[in-house]
Amino acid sequence: MSDAPEANRYEARFEGESTVAGFAQYIRTAELVAFVHTEVSPAYEGRGVGAALARAALDAARAANLLVLPTCPFFAGWIARHPEYQDLVYQSRSRVSD
Question: Among 82, 3, 81, 71, which residue's Cα sits nearest to residue 37?
Fold first, then answer.
C-alpha cells in the first residue's frame, strides 16, 4: 500500500504487479483526512485488499496526528468493526449559545 498524494488516494498493489488492486480516495486538510471512496478491482475482491487499505490509511492518519472523517461507507463500516481505530474518528462538536 502506498500513498499517491498527487491522486489524493492510497493505492494497493500486490508485490511484483503494476496493476492497482484497489484504492481509497481521500481529502486531506491540516487537521483531518476524509475518506470519501474505496474501490477494489473485481479481480482482487475477496483477497483483503479493502481491509489492507483501511488499516494502512488509518495507521498513516494516526502517525500524522490526523483525525478521520469516514464518509465512505466501507471505511465507516470497517472502523465500526475495529474499535481500536474509533479514537481517530472526527466528532462534530456544535456549540449551543445561550
Answer: 71
